[in-house]
């Protein structure tokens, strides 16, 4: 990889601040990063025709669920979102922990090379995705000049996102990464629309006059206000029409209603409760004889990565199956049911419910296990961190292999359980029509809790600076 140093050294980067910044300053820079990304989501790409997007790439990369996860907005500078950074990071993590890359992350220079290589790979992936989107007509018909303009704009947009991520990661901002910030903004935007939008719902091929649910505003609060007013004055649509706003087949579209509002609150509470659960592992300091502590392992040991993989895999599989059905000119009832079960929807059919939950739970469990083995979060890596911190499990020698053997059973169990529970909760969220989808709600709660706990910790450190020195020791 040293042969790439001339290229890696020329990548635009952000320098670390000369001294640690106070929490208020870091929050200010984080807010600025959020503002920059919000502006990107409303800045249209120059050169693309204003046509309805279509094509297989659009269906995969700009699916509403993928857009929520990766923060993409079609036809804007946020067209690619954080997708290139996330995919590049996951690919490099897998390759590194599989021993296929020559980086020694214990060495400072190699850590810098690894970080720079991730930025370079993200730019390469952005270029490839943009070129493929243009070639497959995701932007409609473009002249060579328009295609070049779109390509340059999206590469520049990806570079901006990389710099925002670099800025936050190097201590200017808060939260450790712009990835969490963009996901939080994306899911929050969906919640904001579902809660406050005054626009009337619009579904292609549906006459709003035929469905009372379509005659109320899209947002829950405006719809509730209109429904209460109509109920008081004996008009329609009333509160009864807001309880369950579901269009019948073949549309199947669900709109924000009382059921989805209650389901969102209930599932959010369940996720918060589970996120606070821990499994304690007894440990002791090697240097200080007799001092014992409990190391809390999160019950949801790994959840975000598996459900992201699950959602993306199901969307990709759905497009492949749909394409196959188009080529063959037909589809069997069993395959049609499987195709429907792959997509998040509020469908109260026993077949769909069972199959959707099984698909999500099984895939999330498989991806959780794979990520636990190659993502650097397994018992071997955890044992290494414990030993390097001067800790050991009481009753056992201070050896990485012995500690790893002790931790293998609880950690592997938590990996499997957390994947299965995350997949099941995500599927249940889809079935009950929670806002932002089940996966979006899990991401929102996890990232929000992470920010909340970090703000509390940073605030405590500023009030009591001595705690930082104690923890540092």
Automatic annotation (TrEMBL):
Gene3D superfamilies: SecY subunit domain. This is Sec translocase alpha subunit, Sec61alpha. InterPro entries: SecY/SEC61-alpha (IPR002208), SecY_dom_sf (IPR023201). One of its GO terms (cellular component) is membrane. GO terms for biological process: protein transport. The chain crosses the membrane at residues 27-48, 60-79, 85-105, 117-139, 145-164, 171-192, 258-274, 295-315, 321-341, 353-372, 415-445. Keywords: Membrane, Transmembrane, Transmembrane helix. The keyword Transmembrane applies. Belongs to the SecY/SEC61-alpha family.
């Amino acid at each position: 990889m040293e042969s790439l140093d001339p290229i890696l050294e020329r990548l635009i980067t952000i320098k670390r601040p000369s001294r640690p910044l106070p929490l208020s300053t870091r929050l200010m820079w984080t807010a600025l990063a959020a503002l920059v990304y919000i502006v990107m989501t409303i800045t249209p790409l120059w050169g693309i025709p204003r046509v309805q997007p279509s094509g297989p790439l659009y269906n995969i990369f700009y699916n509403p669920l993928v857009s929520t996860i990766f923060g993409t907005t079609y036809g804007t500078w946020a067209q690619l979102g954080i997708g290139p950074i996330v995919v590049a990071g996951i690919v490099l993590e897998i390759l590194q922990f599989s021993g296929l890359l020559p980086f020694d992350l214990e060495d400072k220079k190699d850590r810098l090379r690894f970080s720079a290589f991730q930025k370079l790979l993200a730019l390469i992936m952005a270029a490839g995705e943009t070129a493929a989107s243009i070639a497959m007509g995701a932007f409609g018909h473009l002249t060579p000049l328009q295609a070049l303009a779109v390509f340059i704009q999206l590469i520049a947009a990806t570079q901006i996102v990389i710099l925002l991520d670099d800025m936050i990661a190097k201590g200017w901002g808060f939260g450790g990464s712009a990835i969490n910030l963009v996901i939080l903004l994306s899911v929050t935007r969906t919640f904001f629309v579902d809660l406050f939008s005054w626009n009337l719902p619009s579904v292609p091929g549906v006459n709003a006059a035929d469905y009372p649910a379509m005659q109320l505003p899209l947002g829950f609060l405006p719809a509730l206000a209109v429904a209460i007013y109509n109920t008081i004055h004996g008009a329609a649509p009333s509160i009864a029409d807001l309880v369950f706003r579901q269009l019948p087949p073949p549309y199947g579209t669900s709109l924000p209603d009382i059921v989805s509002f209650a389901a969102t609150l209930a599932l959010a509470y369940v996720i918060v409760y589970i996120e606070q659960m821990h499994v304690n592992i007894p440990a002791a300091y090697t240097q200080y004889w007799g001092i014992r502590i409990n190391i809390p392992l999160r019950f949801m040991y790994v959840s975000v990565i598996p459900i992201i993989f699950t959602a993306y895999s199901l969307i990709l599989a759905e497009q492949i199956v749909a394409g196959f059905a188009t080529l063959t000119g037909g589809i069997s009832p069993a395959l049609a049911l499987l195709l429907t079960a792959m997509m998040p929807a509020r469908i109260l059919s026993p077949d769909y419910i069972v199959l959707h939950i099984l698909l999500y739970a099984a895939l999330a469990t498989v991806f959780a296990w794979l990520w636990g083995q190659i993502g650097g979060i397994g018992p071997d890596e955890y044992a290494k961190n414990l030993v390097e911190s001067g800790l050991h499990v009481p009753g056992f020698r201070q050896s990485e292999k012995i500690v790893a053997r002790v931790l293998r059973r609880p950690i592997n169990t938590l990996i499997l359980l957390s994947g299965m529970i995350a997949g099941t909760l995500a599927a249940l969220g889809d079935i009950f029509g929670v806002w932002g989808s089940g996966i979006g709600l899990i991401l929102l709660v996890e990232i929000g809790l992470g920010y909340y706990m970090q703000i509390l910790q940073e605030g405590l450190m500023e009030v009591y600076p001595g705690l930082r020195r104690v923890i540092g020791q």
